[in-house]
Predict the 3D structure of the following.
Amino acid sequence: MSKARNLADLLDASGDVVSGALDNVPPSNDASALTTGTLPVDRVPYVGRRNLIINGGFDVWQRGTSFTTTTAYTADRWHWSNGSAVTVSRTTFASTDNNPGGKYYLRIGANSTSHSTSGVSLRYHIENVTSVAPNTSITLSYWIRSSEVTSWKSQVWERYNGWTDYAQLASHTDTISSSWTKITQTFTTAARTGKTIVDGANTLTLQLQNNSAFTGTNTIDIANVQLEVGSVATPFEYRSYGEELALCQRYYQTGNPNMIAHVVNSGLLTLPIHPTVSFRASPSVEFITSPYVENVPWNSVGSVTLSNTTAAHLTARGGEIGLFGSYSPTPSVGQVWLVNASELKMAAEL
């Protein structure tokens, strides 16, 4: 059936809509296919929020854009785990690339080290395993290439209570090479009969992993990761940077506090926290570098050696943190101080 080009193509001689003439609308005998996932992908409108993955295009990197590490969050929402150090970095598509779409991809470098089979692991945790119904088809798609021919695994897990109670749905293996290749795999969620699903500790987890040795100068590039309900891989869902960042900030936020703190005693200041968006749960807090302090009216610049930072009064929506330490000059109860020049990171990851 050719697509309608103007209003006249949609109507018959009586002025009624011609059956099947509307673009992307199935005739009535295809209605059940919408719920079974068998409708041809080119006849389904690509509505938003198909992708269960946040930051699947690797646009948001609040923690930095290059890491040499054995285990850490790198690109927002993506956790790296490996027995020995690799380099994980944000890389921009070159004009000469056969670009599958987007501006960035994630690059994994072997860091002049030989890594064993299954020793290289990139994970993504989707909040709430119940976000997808039991016994439901879900389809993973992403683009990948490797500087050396490599065997590669795509796995999906259901975690009901962290890594204490979990189930692997399936593991698929593909051979990747130096050309961008689109991987598409379909999984079926578990029945979950008799499972106790623990709040805050259950996820639908994607794991991408090497299935052969990962050696010295090898690099692996990954782009446009999408996991969606159904048995068909639809085109990658692009969201604006602002929207993607806000979704990421449910799990991690960072910034320079530059805020007024209140003196509780000579060794404790309380600092109010106002997150940009509400966190998934009460976040952990950490100063990346020690702050400096000034007492109001900013006539005495001082220093602090922090011994402890507590978040006992910090909730998902904000609150205050306690800054215990040795201050110079010594604060007095009732004073107001400025805490500045330090990056504060707050995390509520899964």
Notes: The first strand starts at residue 66 and ends at 73. The radius of gyration is 25 Å. The first helix runs from residue 33 to 36.
